[in-house]
Amino acid sequence: MRAIKQLYFVCERLCLLCCIVSISLLGGSFGQKQKDLYADSAFLYIPDYAQGFFLKEDGDNRILYVKKSWSESEYNQYILYPRCDSAIYKGKKNHIPYPIQNAICLSTTHIAYLDVLHKLDVITGISGVKYLSNSIIRGNVDTGTVYDIGYEGTINTELILSLHPDVVFAYSIPGVSTAYLKPLIQMELPVIFWEDFLEAHPLGKAEYMVSFSSFFDSACMVNAFSHFNEICSVYNHLCSTTHSRVYDPKVLMNAPFNEVWYIPGGNSYMAKLVTDAGGSILGSKGGTSESQPVGLEQSYLYAMEADFWLHPNAYRNLDDLANSDPRFSQIPAIKEQRVFNNTLRSTQGGGTDFWERGVTEPHLILSDLIKILHPYLLPDHKMYYYEQISNSHSSAPLSFLP
């Protein structure tokens, strides 16, 4: 692993390293001033873009730091130890053997990270199967080799315990209780609450493939580093191609939901993608990553100004969208058929691969957006996640199994 560090711990990371060291020395990063036993351990991986994790090493053990839910500076700590040392560490709180052999995934994005690592075989249970795009795991659910363990409040705790997983990959979102996972935590089953969905930079979301690789052997980690760096190179090259754009198109995002139109914040994931594709989101508020509610009247003013309309909820038919509100038929983007949605790879249950495998392929999403906003820059690109909304589409999502 020393060669890995020499390859990736280069000078431009020194600033971030100093910040993390400072947090550790202050002792405030781990709850109630708990001492970090690994404060002096060497760093194994410091992310370039992701804000929610980093890795250290102590001998053959890997120390995974995962930012606590909705915290700016506090981290949970997990000790990943070689499986051959199970006699020493098995049963200890937050100790997980590697390579893992049995994992539960409560989010489809967790499945995507394992898929890109070619490690789908470790998954024994999943949540939200109707939203899942991955054909291999859907097939395994059908054959009974992977179990559907329920969804959030209806999760089957007894089934999870009977599967004896090495780890449960979970998540937490505001306003949604995670009390349903308390029995697992009380049984000292390792439950990791990932915050990949909070990452504002598309490459930050993709970088979680590196954190997931730490649960496997060193070769898997090396491959993850290499693959992620290739994605970064392609993504950043695509960004540079938009420097030659001839104009900055104005983009309308989303559609009304319960009489409120939500516009992505200026520091959000979608705002970053649209900006990197050479566009700007109308009404996007700078300085925040949270979507902001905008009144319908103001939203219609934005709509009349927009060059393109993206993500109009689940609509895939232009007439259906126009008929959903009498004022929509006057919107220029509808009249000129410049409406696009991220529904090309969808499931009958309402899921979309854009939010599943798409988090590991930001370069493909960016390519789609550049093709939409500046088609002359990528004349040969065939869209992968986006489709142009027309009257030939059905409003019902198409079944897609990759």
Polypeptide structure, described:
The chain has 402 residues and is α/β, with parallel strands linked by helices. It folds into 2 domains: 2-233, Nitrogenase molybdenum iron protein domain (Rossmann fold), CATH 3.40.50; 245-388, Nitrogenase molybdenum iron protein domain (Rossmann fold, 3-Layer(aba) Sandwich), CATH 3.40.50. The protein is built from 15 helices and 17 strands. It has helices at 2-8, 14-26, 86-89, 108-116, 135-143, 157-163, 182-186, 202-206, 208-213, 218-241, 269-276, 296-305, 318-323, 332-335, 362-373; strands at residues 42-45, 53-58, 61-67, 75-82, 95-98, 103-105, 123-126, 147-148, 167-171, 191-194, 250-253, 261-263, 280-281, 292-294, 308-310, 339-341, 387-388. The strands form 4 sheets. It has a 5-stranded mixed sheet with strand order 1-2-3-4-5. A 5-stranded parallel sheet has the order 8-7-6-9-10, covered by helices on one side. A 5-stranded mixed sheet has the order 13-11-15-16-17, sandwiched between helices. α4 (108-116) links the parallel β6 and β7. α10 (218-241) runs parallel beside α15 (362-373). The protein is globular.
